Amino acid sequence: MKRVRLILFLFLFTLSASSLITIISAASSEKVHVKLTFVDGYTGKPVEGHVWLSFWQADELWKENMMWEMEDEVKFVQNYLDMDTRNGVIDVKLPLHGGYAVWFGPKAEKSNPRYGSLPEYEPRWAVFRFTGELEISHKIIVYPIGFIALDMYSPDGKKLTFKGEEDLWKYNMERVAGVSSDSKIIIHYYTVVENGIVAIGVPAGKPSKIIWATYVPGYGWAWLEADNRGEYYTVGRGEVVRINLVLETSLTMYRLAKQRIDAFKAQGYSLSENVTAMMKQAKILLDEALRSSSSTAAKKSWEALRYILLAEEQAILDRSRQNIERYRMGELHVILPSENYKVNVTLDYPDFFFFVEPYQMVNEYWREIVKIFKFNLFCVSFWETLENGVIPEETIEACFKWINERAGGNVRRILFSGHATGPGYYIDAFIPGEENYYPEHMLRILRPTDEEAVINFSKNWFKSFIKTFRRNHPDVGVVEYITEDELEYRNSLCWSMWNDELLVKPCPLDYKIRWLKEVIKTIREADPNAKIFMSTISAPGNIILNHTREDLDYGWFGRFTSPEAIRYFIENGVDIDGVNVQIHMQSLNGVWDVISLYDLLEGYSELGISIGILEFQVPSNQSEERDFVPWRDGFSEENQAELLRRALTVMLGNPRVVGICYYTHWFDTMARPWTTTKTPFFYVGLLRADGTPKPAYYALLNFFKSRIYQGEIRLSDGRGSVKTLEGWYYVTISDEDGNVIGSYRIHVDGGSKTYLILHQYENQALKAEVKKLREEIEKSRARISSLKGEIRRLEQDVHEKEALIAKLREQCPEEITKTATTTITTTLTETITLQKDAIWTLETYLLIICIAILIVAITLVIAFLRRGRSM
């Protein structure tokens, strides 16, 4: 019996195990049909080559989908399959995984006697995802290329050679690419040829240039170009052209800088004398370089490059400062009847805003900033919302009370955001350790993504806030409504289920656009005066940082972060008033200097909408993970302060920039201070970790305070004027005894003259007469009883006073008009007239009463005298 039971148990165990093996085998044997077609970027014809296919492997498909974000939990299975194309195509079945990679090596090569065999087409690397369809097909564009061999020299004239990628990364982080003259084709491929020379690929047969970056001694890190002195390089397929990179770069940068400087002058800007002097010195050095050996030419070119960049930077700063005067500074004029008044001006707040979130360090230094700008971000916790996205009124009121109290009651303007309420933005919400970013009721509509529920949640989020806030705080302005962040990028995520497994992919553009349109419509219906912005990810410093071709799915979910990305949304019906950009100065992919910052803002200005700086920071030291490049000669608190001053000058000098949020680093702290997990330390705060101000803090305050006028306006013949930063001001007028006549809240427009005119229509002769009568009243009272002879004169006075009363009654309707007139430039365009019924002063009423009493008294005296005579 026991033996039968044992046999039965073994049978059942074997059956269960075989079933389990069958299930596992079925899951692991699931195949994906992949078809990749490689075509010539010019002709569309097939390109032959060899292909290596790889994939990422993890315990869950969604982690494989997020191969970059989950790199610690995925394994890269390299070169799982390699094969030749047939008619430009590979058609294979691969094991099912969330992410795949392909490397394409073109077959066509050209042999060069000096440089060996070089490819006629660009080799390609790219990734693609499994998104639930077992049939995956992609067309991969491959451009024909030529090469430019780069003779590179150090600033002391020493020839530079490279062994491979690691050496070039150490030199300039591999920041070099061949770019077509119209900037539409970017080739990142390079190879190391004869004696360690780098040969960079360029689009074959098309006018092209080299864009690269390096550290320029005496200036700092900069983006540079070499374009064959304006003629561009046209190189045949597989052919090679060799250049002295530093010499050619200096010649190109000199021409481009001169064009910019000449354009500034033509626009009426006055430039510093040293701009001309430095350009002249650069020209001398370049003329000498053209007559020198390669090594000497490079050495002189490095020196010339420093003068060129410094001159161009100075020209940009000159233009920016003059733009501040032209567009940001306004004149306030007061016109009064005489000099016997005092006029005092105090700031309410400037139009431009600056804000930094203090986190756990609210102190007098932070409140000093808030006192000037009276601005704050308005944040609502997702955990405080209802399931449908409605924010309860008590939550809104509690949030405003909290931010206003910590700001000392100085919050007069806010920015309200729908950040992370939209198309599944936050990557970290689903990574272990960060699940609590979203409450459960939001996770239910985000994972998997219910598009309609998400749209309705976001609409209710904005609608409920606007309704409550506008009703309860009509005097607090909403400067911006931000719809969502970084929709042009890949980290807006949509989740789905496939065979009971979670998949994740970047949300498609059609969904993002639909979400934007519906949410924006809701905002405008709730607040017709709303200013609506969308926000981008950290702004790349140059177009060669565009690697979107390396993601074969990018076209249906995003665009390279640039003005063109925002233009794409606008052209597809997204109705926005502005764009917020992130500028992390000195970051490896960011903006490194004044020139690149200026170019970036000018690019977004061409959209014709407002620009906000949603995230901004300047480092004073290197981070733990070396995330920054130095400015000028290195990292220091002094360099942080100076670069901050210059960046503020460029930002304020662009009329479309409305304000700045200094990211999340009020003080030196972790890279992500809002998380509970430890992140690398960043030295980008305006305060040190111990709460003491850095020079950058004082640079910020002085930058704005030096442009804001507060105090008394000196009068000459009743007139006076001051120049101040555009914004709202209080103007108080007092008489010579210090009595306040009136206080006015006036907006000073940038680039304009604003007039406050006080008209007082008074009969000055009458005023003198009134004073005279007061003196005579007292004398008459003493003489009435004893001076009978005075009666005749008083009788005559009675008639005069009766005439005077009649005259005063006629003048009662006369109005005292106080007119505040705003004049744009020199033309009067707007007059706001506040008219009140003429108000008699108490003194005048008393005088009339006294006169009336006097008349009655005189009349009685006369009557008694006449009665006495008759008796």
Quick rundown:
With 871 residues, the protein is of the alpha/beta class.
How would you explain this protein's 3D organization?
The chain has 19 helices and 39 strands. The radius of gyration is 38 Å and the shape is globular. Helix 5 runs antiparallel to helix 6 (294-328) and helix 10 runs parallel beside helix 11. The strands form 10 sheets. An 8-stranded parallel β-sheet has the order 21-30-29-28-27-24-23-22. Strands 10, 11, 14, 15 and 18 form a 5-stranded mixed β-sheet that branches. The protein is 35% helix and 29% strand. The chain is α/β, with parallel strands linked by helices and 871 residues long. Residues 1-28, 762-775 and 812-842 have low confidence and may be disordered.
Cα-atom radius of gyration:
38 Å
Helix coverage percent: 25-40%
How many strands, what sense, and barrel or not for the largest sheet?
Answer: 8 strands, parallel
User: What is the number of helices?
Assistant: 19
Strand order of the largest sheet: 21-30-29-28-27-24-23-22
Q: What is the overall silhouette?
A: globular
Number of strands: 39
Calculate the mean pLDDT score and round it: 87
* Uncertain residue ranges: 1-28, 762-775, 812-842
| Secondary-structure content class | alpha/beta
How much strand content do the residues show?
Answer: 25-35%
End-to-end gap: 161 Å
